[in-house]
Write a structure and sequence with these properties.
The complex is a heterodimer. Chain A is an alpha+beta fold. Chain A folds into two domains: about 290 residues, no CATH class; about 160 residues, no CATH class. Helices cover about 25% and strands about 30% of the residues of chain A. Chain A has an eleven-stranded antiparallel sheet, with helices on one face. Chain A has an eight-stranded antiparallel sheet with strand order 15-17-18-19-23-22-21-20, sandwiched between helices. A three-stranded antiparallel sheet of chain A has the order 2-3-14, with no helix packed on it. In chain A, a hairpin with a 5-residue loop joins strand 9 and strand 10. Chain A is globular. The termini of chain A are far apart. By secondary structure, chain B is mainly α. Chain B has one domain: Orthogonal Bundle (Rna Polymerase Sigma Factor, Chain: A). Chain B is globular and about 50 Å long. The chains are: A alpha+beta, B mainly alpha.
Chain lengths: ~525, ~180
């Protein structure tokens, strides 16, 4: 009698191989069906990236995608086969929140190791190279891919609390000249009865970041451009309300809440495995990432959950096969007294980093919502533009000031114009110095290759470039980032300003040529808007 | 699994290359499944052809969140089942679809004797048992998944599998008269 296992094995090993003729016949028919299904190639999700990368002029529009992706850092999402990212994050934060309870003061310590950054200096060099040298189409294509891939790199946001009660997003990164990894000790004390807290981040004997709430004031450190750290205290605003769950802004899960509010990208948990940490702790490892436009998943997070207590033990952030940041839980305990006063009085100047740290820095305000035009003009190191008259289908404007991911010393500005109640055409203006450099370099390269760029010039000297297929792609991402369902007839414009800078305009719907002309002609330097 | 997730994402964007990769990756596998279910290479060819043509034209509406492999396997299974039912309707003789005569064109594609023997034995199984055995062993599907597809209880599926394997053992040992 043959055992069942043998039959199963034989069955498993049995396989047929299609002949070359059959292989070709089925493929030809299937591809024909694939092609025929593309009834509306411009807007029905064509293979945009293939088109962009194969077409000389359309590569220009690839630049537009960058803006969107740059402020789409840390997008996580809906569902996959077994577990959704959103469920995972909710579970992580809910479990973490339970730690901040009890009669005593909760003390939590994490260790954050920031590894040498691999991308920023390189990408800046790439843009420079594009400006300096004539490149072949293949070289330019390769450069585009590398640049856009590196742009997709994101950091885990570190949240702190502002006097208004709103979250402030900061990020930790190595200084450009840092040659080795740095370790930061992230300590938090929280009083469940009064909701007062202290959070400090220290490297060596220097405090590089601190945030506290003492019942009346919110105290927070600011890092100046020269790297100096100063403590500022501000009375809480009338709208201040201490958050219910301290895990939203303290400890290892600070920032996860931001992720949970964002359902733009349907990235699943890509993998779930079991593993062991260096100290022998058994963990379940969840891999969550965001594939780049070519489908490479080279940027991802590993959430390592302790199997015994289901509390998160480590978060590892990986880019291009290398660990960029590792957050490791060190201690959970209940104590009678915090090491610092709630008002951080002990943080005198000798404890604060009183000179520019050579390695790690904390970049405050990764994103500042609702800034004024004055703020934009004063902060931007390039000429910014704004509509002198808002488009007549919109009813209000908000400007967001975001860190320029590839050049952290610079800022990116996104002006969002809300549509009127009877309209759906949300409108965006996106501007950054990296866009200016990158697009300028791209146009220069195309001209050097003899490609003609079809500009349409307007009365105020602005020139508009459009490419239907690629604009469908980047505008889709733009609107999804604004939590808005992209319409099928959305519009995207790349505008070269008289100052030689560039801005992207996205409208979530169809606009007539007259409306485009009115909109573009309405663009004025933001500094002049202030004068008016 | 990861590659499939990326392929699905790119396929949804309309990528022809992604489709081609899926095709290359699963053609032989699906052909083997289809041949196992139908015991007829020509029918298996038609099924796989129809499945890939349907899949290629569905990219705009493709919203499958589960495993790509399972999805394609299920498509093949549904096609095979439809053809089986059609054959049953057209002929009162169930052996029309299960006869070993049909395995002849398959035999010439299978090189080793063990597989030929096994293939003939599989064609002798009642369709539900054959489907269960093929989906579980070749398709790697869990009994729970098969139960959902066949709309029967998991116990029924386990029973079909057990009977199917037992019958294969008997057939392969010459204990059952064909």
């Amino acid at each position: 009698m043959r055992p069942a296992e043998e039959i199963e094995n034989n069955l498993k090993n049995m396989s047929l191989k299609a002949s070359a003729e059959l292989r070709k016949k089925i493929l030809d028919d299937a591809l024909k069906a694939h092609q025929q299904s593309k009834t509306q190639p411009a807007f029905d999700k064509p293979n945009i990236w293939r088109i962009i990368m194969n077409s000389k002029t359309s590569k220009l529009a690839a630049a537009a995608v960058i803006a969107i992706v740059a402020f789409a850092t840390w997008r996580i999402s809906e569902t996959n086969n077994h577990i959704s990212s959103i469920e995972l994050l909710q579970k992580i934060q809910a479990t973490e929140g339970k730690l901040y309870a009890g009669d005593k003061i909760v003390h939590i310590v994490n260790e954050i190791t920031v590894y040498k950054s691999q991308y920023n200096p390189k990408t800046q060099e790439m843009i420079q190279k594009m400006n300096d040298q004539k490149m072949s189409a293949d070289e330019l294509d390769k450069m585009n891919r590398e640049l856009i891939s590196s742009w997709l790199v994101s950091w885990l946001p570190m949240c702190s609390l502002q006097p208004s009660g709103e979250m402030r997003i900061t990020e930790i990164r190595l200084a450009k000249d840092a040659n080795e990894a740095h370790t930061i000790t992230d300590s938090a004390w929280y009083d469940p009865k009064t909701r007062k807290f202290v959070r400090t981040m220290e490297t060596g004997d220097k405090v590089i970041f601190a945030n506290s709430y003492d019942g009346e004031f919110v105290n927070i450190t600011e890092t100046a451009a020269d790297g100096m750290v100063q403590l500022k205290s501000e009375a809480i605003g009338s709208t201040f309300k201490a958050p219910e769950n301290p895990a939203e802004f303290l400890g290892i899960t600070a920032g996860v809440r931001q992720c949970m509010n964002d359902k733009c990208f349907s990235q699943p948990v890509q993998d779930v495995t079991k593993g062991t940490l260096a100290d022998g702790t058994a963990v379940v490892i969840y891999k969550v990432g965001f594939p780049n436009p070519w489908g490479d998943l080279n940027t991802y997070y590993l959430f390592k959950i302790n199997q015994a207590d289901e509390i998160i033990a480590e978060i590892e952030y990986i880019y291009a096969g290398s660990t960029q940041m590792l957050i490791r839980r060190v201690l959970n305990e209940q104590v009678d007294k915090a090491e610092y006063s709630w008002n951080l009085a002990e943080l005198n100047s000798k404890e604060l980093a009183n000179e520019a740290p050579s390695g790690v820095t904390v970049a405050s305000d990764v994103a500042i919502p609702n800034v004024s035009i004055r703020h934009m003009v004063d902060t931007a190191k390039f000429e910014t533009y704004i509509f002198a008259t808002d488009p007549n289908w919109t009813k209000g404007r908000m400007i967001i000031d975001i860190v320029d991911t590839l050049n952290p010393a610079e800022r990116m500005f996104v002006a969002i114009y809300q549509p009127k109640d009877n309209d759906t055409r949300l409108t965006l203006i996106i501007q950054s110095e990296t866009h200016n450099k990158y697009m300028g370099a791209l146009f220069k390269q195309h001209e050097a290759q003899g490609a003609k760029v079809n500009w349409k010039e307007y009365a105020n000297g602005c020139k508009v470039f459009r490419h239907a297929e690629s604009e469908a792609f980047w505008t889709e991402l733009s609107f999804k980032n604004c939590q808005v369902e992209p319409s099928k007839d959305r519009t995207g414009l790349i505008v070269e300003m008289p100052s030689g800078t560039y801005c992207l305009i996205a409208v979530n719907g169809a606009v007539t040529d007259e409306e485009i002309a009115e909109m573009v002609n309405s663009l004025i330097p933001a500094k002049d808007y202030q004068v008016k | 699994m990861l590659e499939d997730e990326i392929l699905k994402w790119r396929f949804r964007q309309g990528s022809k290359e992604a489709f081609c990769r899926v095709y290359e990756k699963y053609l032989d596998y699906l052909l083997t499944i289809a041949a196992g279910l139908t015991s007829d290479f020509n029918t298996a060819e038609d099924i796989v052809h129809d499945v890939f043509v349907m899949f290629a034209s569905s990219w705009q509406n493709f919203r499958q969140t589960g495993s790509l492999k399972s999805y394609l396997t299920t498509c093949v299974m549904n096609q095979a089942r439809d053809r089986f039912r059609k054959a049953v309707r057209q002929s009162s003789d169930l052996k029309e679809y299960t006869s070993t005569d049909h395995t002849d064109n398959l035999d010439c594609l299978i090189s080793d004797e063990t597989s030929k023997e096994l293939n003939k034995a599989i064609s002798e199984l009642p369709y539900e048992q054959r489907e269960t055995v093929i989906l579980h062993v070749k398709g790697g599907m869990k009994f729970k998944e098969i139960a959902r597809l066949q709309n029967v209880s998991i116990n029924t599926v386990q029973g079909r599998y057990r009977y199917g394997i037992d019958k294969l053992r008997s057939l392969l040992n010459g204990e059952v008269q064909k």
